[in-house]
Amino acid sequence: MLVSRDDLVQMEGKITEVHAGGNFAVTTDTRHEILARLSGRIRRHHIRVVLGDRVTVAVSPYDPTHGLVVYRSR
Which of 4, 33, 37, 40 is deepest in the core (most CB within 10 A)? Predict the structure, then answer.
């Protein structure tokens, strides 16, 4: 079953760890740990995401431990 982009929950957080392969550990403002990948749009436009950045993570309601980094705050 595929989840559409409209069904994803947007959460704000901070990059706490950088893993290999474009994976990041994100701690949300509600103190949840999420393993997040970079979304295709961020990879396509070569937006650099580094440790300590504020990001928006789109999380599936079915698996809240994984998500996509969809926006990097300035």
Answer: 37
Find out whether 17 and 25 touch, Cβ atoms under 8 Å: yes
Closest Cα to residue 10, out of 25, 24, 23, 29?
29
First CA to last CA distance, the chain: 35
Q: What is the pLDDT along the chain (74 residues), one digit of tens a residue?
A: 566 777 899 999 999 999 998 899 999 999 999 999 999 999 999 999 999 999 999 999 889 999 999 999 97
Which CATH architecture best describes the domain 5-72?
Beta Barrel (2.40)
Can you give the residue ranges of every domain in the chain? 5-72
Instruction: Answer yes or no: pTM beyond 0.90.
Output: no
